[in-house]
Amino acid sequence: MAELILYNTLTRRKEVFNPLHPPRVGIYVCGPTVYGDPHLGHARPAITFDLLFRYLLHLGYQVRYVRNITDVGHLENDADEGRDKIATRAQLEQIEPMEIVQRYSDHYHKSMDQLNVLKPSIEPRASGHIPEQIEMVAKILDAGYAYISNGSVYFDVEKYDTKNHYGKLSGRVLEDLLSTTRDLDGQEEKRNPFDFALWKKALPEHIMRWNSPWSPGFPGWHLECSAMSTKYLGDEFDIHGGGMDLLFPHHECEIAQSKIANGKDSVRYWMHNNMVTINGQKMGKSLGNGILLDQMFSGNHPLLEKSYDPMTIRFFILQAHYRSTLDFSNEALQASEKGLSRLMKSIAMLPGLAVSNETTINLDIWKTNCYNALNDDLNTPILIAHLFDMVKMINLLSEGRERITKPDLDILIQQFHQFTFDILGLREEQLTTGESELLPKVMDMILSLRQEAKKNKDFALSDRIREELGKIGISIKDKKDGADWEIG
Ligand code: ZN
Q: Where among 376, 403, 423 does a domain terminate?
C-alpha cells in the first residue's frame, strides 16, 4: 500500500509520515477552553483529528492521542492581561470556576459523542498539571530565556530569536512583529511587547491561583500544552494538531518554550485544520453568528432553516478537505444530508444484492483509489467521491446491469463499511431528520385513536396498542387527559 503523506505546516510541504517509534504514534491536539456551550468551531478540529486518529488505528499503529482541556490561564482576547475566561463565566453564573469547567466539559463530551468523535487516549486538564508547568518555567529561567518582572515570568523572545526563528511556523519574522504588536495596558512589565507570559502574578480579584516560587498566580495559556505534551508524549513526538487560529501566537510560543525546556524541537509534524465560515462570514467569537452545536441539532437558530443531524454535520465537514475553509449554509447542509442518506441507503442495499458466478466491476482499483485519497493528506472529498462511484455501481448491480460473486460481495461490504464507518466515522442515525419530525405526529395520531378506543370502552384495543408500542420500544404513560410517550 502507498505511504501516508501529510502536509506539515512547519515545512509547508507534504511529507511521508514516518513515526519516531513505530508502531507507536503520539498525537497532541489543542482541545477546548471550557467556558461555554460547544459550537460549530469546536466540531471541525475534533472531527479532523478524529479522522487522523481513526486512520492511523486502521493502518495498525498504536496511537496515543492526547487532547487537552484548557481550564485555567486562557485570558480574554487571548492576551497576557485581563480576566480569565472561565473565572468570568463563573462570576456571571455565580458558581465555582471548577463547576463551570465540569459543566462545559460534560457538554463538550456529549456533543463529541453525538458527532461520533472517539475519546482521546488521555484528556489532561491544565489545572491538574500546575507542578509540571512550574517546573517548565524554572527550566526556562535556568536556561536564561525568561525573566521575572513584578512576580510574573516572561519568555525572552528576542534572545530566543538570536539562535532560533521565532515565527517559523506562522511565517512571521520578529522585525515585523515589532511593528505590528500593539501596546496594551500592563505591558510595561515586559521588556518587549512580543514577549509572552509563562507565569502571571494574580491580581487580588483573580480567584484561580496557585503558589509558585515567583508569586501566587497562574500559568500562561501557552505553557500547558508544552508541559502536558512533554509529560505524556516525551520531549519529541510525532504530530501536533489544532485549528489554524492557534498557529500564532499559541503554537509559535509552544515551539519556543519546548525548544528551550527540552533542548530540541519537540514536534515533527504540525497539522492545522482551516476555519469555519457561516454564510460566507467568519464565525464570530461573540457568538453573533456562532451557531451552537445544540442549535444545529435542534434547528433552533435564526440562520437555520431546519435541524441537522450530528451525522449530517460530520459528513458535511468531511466533504471538504481539512485545509480548505468550510462555509456552513443551509443549501450546502441540505445537499450533504441528501448525499449521506443516499450513501446509507446504498450500504443497506448491499447484503440483499443478487450474486452471480462472475464479477464485472473492478474492486481492486476502487479500493486502491480510496486508499490513495486518504494517503494524500487525508483527502476525504476525493474518498467520498469514490464512495459515490461505488453507489452508482451498487445501483447497476441491483438492476442486474453489473454482476458480482458472493465472495466479492462480502469483500465489498467489508471495505465499504471500513471506509464509511471505521475511518470516516459515520454511523447510521436511528432516524433521519425528516423521519424524526414525522414520529411525533404519528404518535399523536396513534394516541388519539387509543383515547377514542378507551372512550368507547374498547379496553382490549387500547391495551393492545400499548403492548404493541412497548414491543417496538415506545412506552406510554397515561395522564388525566390523554397520554405521554417516550422511546425506551
Ligand atoms: Zn495548545
A: 423
- 60-66: average pLDDT: 98
CA–centroid distance, residue 78 to ligand 1 (Å): 12
113 and 188 belong to one structural domain: yes
277-286, 401-410, 473-482 — which one is most confidently predicted on average? Answer: 401-410
Same domain, 237 and 305: no
Band the pLDDT of 51: cuts 50, 70, 90. Answer: very high
Q: Do 411 and 441 share a domain, yes or no?
A: no
d(CA 435, ligand 1 centre) in Å: 41
Pair (169, 192) in one structural domain: yes
Using the mean position of ligand 1's atoms as its centre, give its distance from the Cα of residue 374 in Å: 26
* Local structure of 100: helix, strand or coil: helix
CA 40 to centroid of ligand 1, rounded, Å: 19
CA of 297 to the centre of ligand 1 (A): 28
pLDDT at residue 205 in the model: 84
Q: Ligand 1: distance of its center to the CA of 20 in Å?
A: 21
The count of other CB atoms within 10 Å of the CB of residue 192 is 16
User: Who contacts 100 (Cβ-Cβ below 8 Å, separation ≥6)?
Assistant: 34, 35, 86, 89, 90, 93
Question: How many Å lie between the centroid of ligand 1 and the Cα of residue 119?
Answer: 18
Distance 245 CA to ligand 1 centre (A): 11
The DSSP line for 414-426 is: HHHHIIIIIIS--
Range of the domain at 458: 435-487
Percent of the chain with pLDDT over 90: 77
Q: What is the pLDDT of residue 275?
A: 93
Please compute, for residue 306, the number of CA atoms within 13 A of its CA located in the half-sphere on the CB side. Answer: 16
Sort strands 326-328 and 281-282 into parallel, antiparallel or unpaired.
unpaired
Number of domains in the chain: 3
On whether residue 26 sits in a domain, the answer given is yes
Rounded to the nearest whole angstrom, what is the distance from the C-alpha of residue 221 to the centroid of ligand 1?
8
Same domain, 130 and 113: yes
Residue 68: what pLDDT? Answer: 97
**pTM recorded for the entire structure:** 0.86
Predicted confidence (pLDDT) per residue in 99-113, tens digit: 999 999 999 999 999
